[in-house]
């Protein structure tokens, strides 16, 4: 028992307990993320199934696409401003690399909504932007899904440069272009007049629980393994250190060896005989 009270053993035991606690906390964190994802999935399902409504009725006076509006089906009527059109680079759809074309749509009240008109795959062995289909002139009505502005820590990704950007971030684009943009954008599904068939529609969201549940199980398993290992090695040290687990050395070694060999008699046998 004295061995278990050494500073080295106590330090190792404390580290194992701390490790198990950390693993348990990480498991709880993954479960909380699972709950958040399920809540978002419920909102997404409801918004996708909602009857299309005018975008200004959905976002309200704040004109911000929030979490409650993400993937909400909406309509917008106005005229495209092709002079401020943006190419969004480094996009992938079904393992195809390409570009998304975002064109501002000026609404009747003077506000402007960014419309993602669709995806254009890049050519084979080419990183150049393919020819961009012309936007319809005059009034158009777009039906699609509202999306929140994309966020990123790299300002070079959100601020448009030479007519292109990496992220669709309405506040950054508004500041760079001076347009009164709604904070968010519309992912076009259909349009009147019809959109050019060269555009590929972007896929709907993936609604699943993700890997959070299995990650949580892994962290809980690591915590159990750490505590189980501590219990196992503690029991082994106690067992190995108990008096009953050691046999007397004299018994184990057998009779004391006096230097006699089995093939020899007494050292004095036969001494002095003729």
Automatic annotation (TrEMBL):
Residues 239-249, 258-267 have a biased composition (Basic and acidic residues). Residues 239-274 are annotated as: Disordered. It is a multi-pass membrane protein. InterPro entries: Surf1/Shy1, Surf1/Surf4. It is found in: Cell membrane; Membrane. The keyword Transmembrane helix applies. It holds the Pfam family SURF1. Keywords: Cell membrane, Membrane, Transmembrane, Transmembrane helix. Belongs to the SURF1 family. This is SURF1-like protein. The lineage of its organism: Bacteria, Bacillati, Actinomycetota, Actinomycetes, Propionibacteriales.
